[in-house]
């Protein structure tokens, strides 16, 4: 029975060793106020039993279409769902879903659901990379499903590689983003697009223990990555010194310095439809890096450190677009001064950089850094300005992706 007024989420669990992780996903869904019905496969019950799912969801659990047959569960569960999440999704389950097979309650539910569907695959690397699996994934994505790229790491036994189930907390983030967009005209409007997002702040080393850096936390860049995954994109996230869990479904490239950030972003941009530079690269680096820790002088004097200017990555991306039509988005953390307001400086920067969009943050007094919320003005090269009121960083991310989609469609 569906709980009135609460989003109804179906959690499908297929028969992989990662089924135990779905218990954590279920807990997050129920504790955040969702009405959750768990639909495991028979194989999944070999890993986690029905009593566990029933206790955590507060509902009876069945894998076949014959239990409670008077309520027609093979039709009703899918018809009443606001979201279906399958975690883990095995190669077998993906194949059945792609080909419309319906031999148990979960596959019947997938056929009758008219809501968004998220698959979080988990399997051995060879199974994930097999052409049959890749074709099944492509088919599901073409139909509007969100298939989250598996993570890389330890698999069953001693094996490691791509195929690991992303962390439940990150699957939860993607699922809730998809659920929030279920009424959008095209919830997966980034499907088929490769987007590159940079996040965090670079470090320029003075010696083995000291560096020049900034206060960027990476939260906005990670919000951009998560929302892009939820909207169906292939996402490459270039993360500079960020202490955050990898967003589910994103390929994460970790860097430290501005030179490393430039190399990673320029490389990924070669196949990108959009590049969003949310990272804060250091503008300057020391002209020389000491091989030993710089010691205090006995006379109390301080060392003089000569700085060199780092390359302007955003301007380079905008000027030398490897792919025609790639949308380039920059960020500007600005403060007003005697020479102009925040927006005055931002408009000058937009013209100087040559990007398509510039997201402007007023950081007077340290605002924005490390906060879960943000407010901004999105400027475009045609003279438009979109004010985004204070809200979650995910809300700002969606506004940015809306404008990116509009530019990609008109390119």
Automatic annotation (TrEMBL):
Segments of this protein annotated with the region Phosphopantothenate--cysteine ligase: 195-411
The Enzyme Commission number assigned here is: 4.1.1.36, 6.3.2.5
Q: DNA/pantothenate metabolism flavoprotein C-terminal domain: which residues?
A: 190-405
Q: Which NCBIfam families match?
A: coaBC_dfp (TIGR00521)
The record's catalysed reaction(s) read: N-[(R)-4-phosphopantothenoyl]-L-cysteine + H(+) = (R)-4'-phosphopantetheine + CO2; (R)-4'-phosphopantothenate + L-cysteine + CTP = N-[(R)-4-phosphopantothenoyl]-L-cysteine + CMP + diphosphate + H(+)
- Matching InterPro entries, A to Z? CoaB-like_sf (IPR035929), CoaBC (IPR005252), DNA/pantothenate-metab_flavo_C (IPR007085), Flavin_trans-like (IPR036551), Flavoprotein (IPR003382)
Superkingdom = Bacteria
What gene, per UniProt, encodes this protein? coaBC
All copies of the Flavoprotein domain together span 8-174
Q: What is the recorded function of this protein according to its Swiss-Prot or TrEMBL entry?
A: Catalyzes two sequential steps in the biosynthesis of coenzyme A. In the first step cysteine is conjugated to 4'-phosphopantothenate to form 4-phosphopantothenoylcysteine. In the second step the latter compound is decarboxylated to form 4'-phosphopantotheine. Catalyzes two steps in the biosynthesis of coenzyme A. In the first step cysteine is conjugated to 4'-phosphopantothenate to form 4-phosphopantothenoylcysteine, in the latter compound is decarboxylated to form 4'-phosphopantotheine.
Q: Where does CTP bind?
A: 283, 293, 311-314, 331, 349, 353
For this UniProt entry, the molecular function terms from Gene Ontology, in alphabetical order, are: phosphopantothenate--cysteine ligase activity; phosphopantothenoylcysteine decarboxylase activity
Pathway the protein takes part in: Cofactor biosynthesis; coenzyme A biosynthesis; CoA from (R)-pantothenate: step 3/5; Cofactor biosynthesis; coenzyme A biosynthesis; CoA from (R)-pantothenate: step 2/5
Alphabetic keyword roster:
Decarboxylase, Flavoprotein, FMN, Ligase, Lyase, Magnesium, Metal-binding, Multifunctional enzyme
- Organism, by scientific name, is Nocardioides jiangsuensis
Q: What does the record give as cofactor?
A: FMN; Mg(2+)
| Family, similarity comment | In the C-terminal section; belongs to the PPC synthetase family.
**Can you say what this protein is called?**
Coenzyme A biosynthesis bifunctional protein CoaBC
- The record's region (Phosphopantothenoylcysteine decarboxylase) falls at 1-194
Q: Return the cofactor note field.
A: Binds 1 FMN per subunit.
Pfam families listed in its UniProt record = DFP, Flavoprotein
């Amino acid at each position: 029975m569906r709980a009135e007024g609460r989003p109804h989420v179906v959690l499908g669990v297929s028969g992989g060793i990662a089924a135990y992780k779905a218990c954590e996903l279920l807990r997050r869904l129920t504790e955040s106020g969702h009405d959750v019905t768990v639909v495991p496969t028979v194989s999944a019950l070999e890993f986690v039993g029905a009593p566990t799912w029933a206790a955590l969801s507060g509902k009876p659990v069945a894998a076949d279409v014959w239990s409670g047959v008077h309520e027609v569960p093979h039709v009703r569960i899918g018809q009443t769902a606001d979201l279906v999440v399958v975690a883990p999704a095995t190669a077998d389950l993906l194949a059945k879903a792609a080909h419309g097979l319906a031999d148990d309650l979960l596959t019947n539910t997938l056929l009758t659901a008219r809501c968004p569907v998220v698959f979080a695959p988990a399997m051995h690397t060879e199974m994930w990379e097999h052409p049959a699996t890749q074709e099944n994934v492509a088919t599901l994505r073409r139909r509007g499903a969100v298939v989250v790229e598996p993570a890389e790491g330890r698999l069953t036994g001693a094996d490691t590689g791509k195929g690991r189930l992303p962390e439940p907390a990150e699957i939860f983030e993607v699922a809730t983003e998809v659920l929030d967009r279920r009424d959008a005209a095209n919830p997966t409007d980034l499907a088929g697009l490769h987007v590159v997002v940079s996040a965090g702040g670079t470090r320029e080393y003075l010696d083995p223990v000291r560096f020049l850096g900034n206060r960027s936390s990476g939260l906005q860049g990670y919000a951009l990555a998560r929302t892009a995954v939820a909207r169906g994109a292939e996402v490459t996230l270039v993360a500079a010194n960020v202490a955050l869990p990898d967003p589910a479904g994103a390929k994460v490239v970790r860097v430290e310095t501005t030179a490393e950030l430039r190399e990673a972003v320029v490389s990924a941009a070669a196949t990108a439809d959009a590049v969003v530079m949310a990272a804060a690269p250091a503008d300057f680096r020391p002209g020389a890096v000491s091989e030993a820790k710089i010691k205090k002088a006995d006379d109390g004097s301080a060392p003089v450190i000569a700085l060199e200017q780092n390359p302007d990555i955003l301007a380079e991306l905008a000027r030398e677009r490897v792919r025609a039509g790639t949308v380039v988005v920059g960020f500007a953390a600005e403060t007003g001064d005697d020479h102009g307001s925040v927006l005055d400086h931002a408009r000058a920067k937009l013209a100087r950089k040559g990007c398509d969009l510039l997201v402007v943050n007023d950081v007077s007094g340290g605002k924005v850094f490390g906060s879960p919320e943000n407010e901004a003005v999105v400027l475009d090269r045609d003279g438009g300005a979109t004010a985004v009121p204070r809200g979650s960083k995910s809300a700002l991310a969606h506004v940015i992706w809306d404008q990116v989609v509009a530019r990609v469609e008109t390119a």
